[in-house]
Design brief:
This protein has 30 helices and no strands. It is mostly helical. Among the domains are: 22-154, Serine Threonine Protein Phosphatase 5, Tetratricopeptide repeat; 175-261, Serine Threonine Protein Phosphatase 5, Tetratricopeptide repeat, CATH 1.25.40.10; 447-526, Serine Threonine Protein Phosphatase 5, Tetratricopeptide repeat. The chain is elongated, with a radius of gyration of 34 Å. The termini are far apart.
Length: 526
């Protein structure tokens, strides 16, 4: 028994010794390839053996956070800041709080991290602090930039490729594409074994819609490291951009086959499909996830969006209501209100739709024209002309250019509800912008004809004259020319100008020999 206990002690000693001797490369690799459970287990083990190493807490928490396990991340980060109160554990706590919807709280912890970093000298810790502040939803990119530049400046031998990679990622987040490219290239120069800079260059060029540069970089990344799973996810986006749908889905499914099997990964796939407008498959994927069961509220966002696009309206409303009632208010996006508005509109709940659209516009005022256009077009296509006319009225207050189609549809909406005066005003504005547009004159003729008290009054004649002047192609404008010549013919008929009436009736019958009204009028002229 004593020998057994002694052997066990020796075994445990060597296990701990080997763990401490390991560097963190294994765990970082698990994070890079999105094996988050492996990464978390690796760094949790290191926490047990090195309870005062803040990097272990951060990376274990990052693994939990990136896999959607926010409560688990909270526990890890809380334990970390309790054990080591430094820039990294404060930045990590800020990252968690930001992911949980509290942007102001996150910024307070980031500010504390920056204050602590001023006195800290451990460049590895500072590098991870920069990573924590630049990798999640609420960021402090300016602070991260200061810290990573400080780390690089201290790297006298210029061998820290990972620092240059992080600097490139920060520039990418800041919209500094040129600087990001330079730093990714620097990373590749310093470490020829890593595929990450080529992967990110592929992502950068995909985002800027430069497909010619994107694909070769992804292919180069795969040549170096075919096991780097996120390459295939981002290649999927590129293939969708190139309208190669089957390749896009194949690429994303390869990505899913390589990472942790989880509901969160499936939800990311559904999100990928929604982003790339493959709504039918996004809906199918979302329904399968729902059937499997999950407490991940973001499923209902994907289900709501995709259900809206395939016109499963009631299901979409239910999904969006469930999502918006459960998610933290700070996590609600402009698109959530936009889709809720569209679903309410399709449900016939105009007031609720209007309220949702107004919330979307409050969050992003540049959406106003797009959303009011959507409402107007929706009602117009649905032949709800009174609602369409009102929506176009609202739209044209803010849309002061490129609006001729809107005036035309607004005019037709008013015309169809017999508000001929308002319709005529719309067509007049259309003619101001497009003086040779034949349909506008046809409608002005019809509107003004409705104002006539006597058939020989001729209020519509100037507009039908203009139709005949502009409509020089009798095949393209056959119906318009028949209508214009018939009106003018009857105008002269009732003025008892038989010669003129006969001339215009003859033109009608040349276009349509079977026009009964015109034939009857011609017979009366003999």
């Amino acid at each position: 028994m004593k020998m057994y206990r002694f052997s066990l002690v020796i075994a445990l000693f060597f296990a701990v010794f080997q763990l401490q001797a390991q560097d963190i490369t294994t765990g970082l690799r698990s994070l890079d390839v999105e094996k988050f459970e492996e990464a978390k287990a690796f760094f949790q083990a290191r926490i047990n053996s090195e309870p005062l190493n803040s990097i272990n807490y951060y990376l274990a928490g990052e693994a939990a956070l990136r896999s959607g396990k926010t409560e688990e991340a909270k526990q890890i980060f809380s334990k970390g800041i309790g054990a080591v109160n430094n820039s990294l554990t404060n930045a990590a706590t800020g990252a968690y709080i930001g992911e949980n919807g509290d942007a102001d709280g996150a910024r307070k912890f980031y500010a504390a991290a920056m204050t602590m970093a001023e006195k800290e000298k451990d460049n590895v810790v500072l590098q991870y602090t920069a990573r924590a502040m630049s990798s999640f939803e609420v960021k402090n990119l300016e602070g991260a930039l200061i810290l990573i530049n400080r780390v690089i400046a201290a790297d006298k031998k210029n061998v820290n490729a990972e620092a240059h990679f992080l600097l490139a990622c920060i520039y990418l987040e800041m919209g500094e594409g040129g600087k990001a490219v330079s730093e990714f290239e620097k990373t590749a120069e310093l470490d020829k074994t890593t595929a990450k800079p080529f992967w990110k260059l592929g992502y950068l060029y995909t985002r800027s819609r430069n497909t010619r540069e994107a694909l070769p970089n992804f292919e180069k990344a795969i040549t170096i490291d075919a096991g780097l799973a996120p390459i295939y996810r981002d290649m999927g986006d590129l293939y969708f951009q190139m309208n190669q749908t089957s390749k896009a889905i194949e690429s994303y499914k390869k990505y899913l086959s390589m990472i942790d099997k989880s509901i969160d990964a499936q939800i990311r796939y559904a999100s990928f499909l929604v982003t790339n407008k493959d709504y039918k498959n996004a809906y199918i994927e979302s329904k399968e996830i729902e059937k499997a069961g999950t407490d991940n509220v973001y499923l209902y966002r994907m289900l709501g969006y995709s259900a809206c696009e395939i016109d499963s309206v009631n299901e979409g409303v239910t999904a969006m209501e469930k999502f918006m009632s459960k998610v933290a208010p700070a996590k609600i996006r402009t698109g959530d209100y936009e889709y809720m508005g569209k679903l309410q509109l399709k449900s016939g709940k105009d007031a609720e739709a209007d309220a949702a659209f107004k919330k979307a516009i409050e969050m992003d005022s540049t959406l106003a024209i797009e959303l009011y256009s959507y409402v107007a077009e929706y009602h117009f296509k649905g032949r709800a002309y009174a609602k369409a006319a009102a929506a176009y009225e609202q739209l044209l207050v803010i849309k002061t250019s490129n609006n001729l189609t809107d005036y035309f549809n607004q005019g037709r909406s008013y015309y169809n509800i017999q508000q001929y005066g308002k319709a005529d005003t719309c067509f007049a504005k259309l003619i101001e912008g497009s003086p040779n547009y034949v349909p506008a004159y046809i409608y002005r003729g019809r509107c003004n004809q409705s104002f006539e008290k006597r058939p020989d009054e001729g209020k519509a004649k100037p507009y039908f004259d203009k139709v005949i002047e502009l409509a020089t192609d009798p095949v393209k404008y056959k119906r318009d020319l028949i209508e214009a010549n018939r009106y003018i013919g009857f105008h002269y008929y009732y003025k008892n100008d038989k010669a003129q009436a006969k001339a215009f009736f003859t033109k009608v019958l040349e276009l349509d020999p079977n026009d009964k009204d015109t034939k009857a009028a011609m017979a009366n002229l003999k």
